Amino acid sequence: MKKPPRRHDEPLISGFVFFRYLVVGTYVGVSTVFIFIYYYVGYSWAGDGHPLIDFRHLKNWSECT
Question: pTM to 2 decimals?
């Protein structure tokens, strides 16, 4: 409340903030996909009984019967 109000022509998101959101979003997205792939392809010691599959099966999951 000690700061004066923003000017009416000032953008809500500056170029630096947009770039930072873009970098953080890309990092989170890539990390999520990597962890998903790692869980199904190489995480055998989880102990929950999920089957390990090849990456080609994971990549072409829609072709499974």
Answer: 0.67
Exposure string of 14-32, with b = 16+ CB inside 10 Å and e = fewer, is: eeeeeeeeeeeeeeeeeee
Q: How far is CA 20 from CA 16, 32, 34, 58, 60, in A?
A: 6, 18, 21, 31, 33
Please say whether the beta carbons of 37 and 55 come within 8 A.
yes
pLDDT digits (tens, 9 = 90+) for 2-57: 999 888 888 889 999 999 999 999 999 999 999 988 888 887 777 777 778 888 88
DSSP 3-state of 4:
coil
